[in-house]
């Protein structure tokens, strides 16, 4: 139907594309005072996605339930003047929902055939834009870049769904470290106290600089010959306590034969080995050592320290959340094609001792594999992991909802580590700003039991480093 145009000045009418509803069912209630319009073709496309156990299928079913609740609470008579979105208790949604109940459309250029769903939506958008004058504007909301481009080519408003974006620019995402300027010690040296405790050196600093710091942030001073690296342990107003980080670059501090090759790797190991840090996120380009360091820390704490009784590794399969049932074998056998990185790094970790025999290496690998379980994301709901080391690989491809599902699986004594590279997002509806990994870093920043580092320097090989720079 066509919305009632009376008294709409200053408000907007948003036409929702199918992918927005499949991405976030709660989008129905996130347009504040503005009205939303859902074409019939959108409902038909959504109906085709409702079967299955994927995240998209669950979102399609949830959207249908929301629409049914709105219709039930308002009655069919409300279809004429629009359904109040606040009728089901969502007080922030002060606009109305309009469903298409009659054939609406305008003639599109011959180059845009009308049988295609995207073009039908554009025809409806064009018709509404021509018929309605009292809205501030009528706009299409879609996650599909191409339909937004076509809409703008027709002179129509179109925009991305950005409500779930944590950041507009990933460059401002919390990096987990901060370089100290050359005047730092002059500003803060006069009120500085230091002491040793448990083999670590602590500093208490008071000053204006403290206000900009975050708990568990790494502070770096590389201007001196003796480089200074310390973690922010606590912050109280203008006072902070710092703790120097352990040097895992020294061979005597190796973990499963692995030593840190740069300061980013060193701090990552500090976070991975700290029992007081329950959640760690490691970001970085390919070859920075995220997976290798995490597995080494997991094995050391499982076998040597007996801190965890099992290592669980999971990653999302591409296409996102696709069912793995078509592959033969058990859950771990089905996940094996996606776990090449795990096998590659285990080969490195179990082959460290050059003097060991082939039989000894195979025995070590068999022992290690007995403690590592590979799980599919599709079967994580309802699980609780006690005293586990949970590794979430390729976490940049998770939505915020999927990330919440995984992190909330952690029981007592469980450590969760998320690995990812925001430059390698494979999901068609996620960006650097809306990725679940970005969401996690932004929301947990400052929690005393959370640690994060964006690793800068690749260590895979000179070929890999050069390829990253020039390709």
Strand content: 15-25%
Backbone shape:
elongated
Q: Order of strands in the sheet with the most strands?
A: 3-4-2-1-5-6
The CATH architecture of the largest domain would be: 3-Layer(aba) Sandwich
Share of helix, binned? 25-40%
Main sheet makeup: 6 strands, mixed
User: What is the top-level CATH class of the largest domain?
Assistant: Alpha Beta
Describe the structure.
β5 (137-141), α5 and β6 form a beta-alpha-beta unit. A 6-stranded mixed β-sheet has the order 3-4-2-1-5-6, sandwiched between helices. Strands 7-10-11-12-9-8 form a 6-stranded mixed β-sheet, with no helix packed on it. The protein has 14 helices and 18 strands. By secondary structure, the protein is α/β, with parallel strands linked by helices. It has 3 domains: 12-159, Rossmann fold (3-Layer(aba) Sandwich); 170-244, Beta Barrel (Elongation Factor Tu (Ef-tu), domain 3), CATH 2.40.30; 261-470, P-loop containing nucleotide triphosphate hydrolases (Rossmann fold, 3-Layer(aba) Sandwich), CATH 3.40.50.300. The radius of gyration is 27 Å and the shape is elongated.
